[in-house]
Amino acid sequence: MAKICPVTKKGSRVGGGYSNRVRATKFNPTGSVRRQPNMQKKRLFVPELNRTLTLTLSTKAIRTINKNGAYKTLKEAGVI
Q: Are 28 and 35 in contact (CB under 8 A)?
């Protein structure tokens, strides 16, 4: 599955975590954790092209497509 959303360009980010002991002493941090975006496989029908596309999109991109329309959003992103 793709790791980067073609519409929003979201990818993985490095985040950290703290244990309760670290909060108490500010010593011995727990290290870095790679956080992945919420990617979903989605089939979209684009009436302007009269075809169906299968894309792996972030949930934010799915919301954007629902709001603005598939053709406009994918055209701006350079997918089609």
A: no
Helix (H) or strand (E) holding 63: helix 59-68
Q: In CATH terms, is domain 13-77 a member of 3.40.50.970?
A: no
| Other residues' Cβ atoms within 10 Å of the Cβ of residue 78 | 8
Report CA Rg, the chain. 18
Residue boundaries of the structural domains of the chain: 13-77
21-48: average pLDDT: 82
Look at the pTM and tell me if it is higher than 0.85: no
36's CB contacts (< 8 A; 6+ apart) are: 3, 12
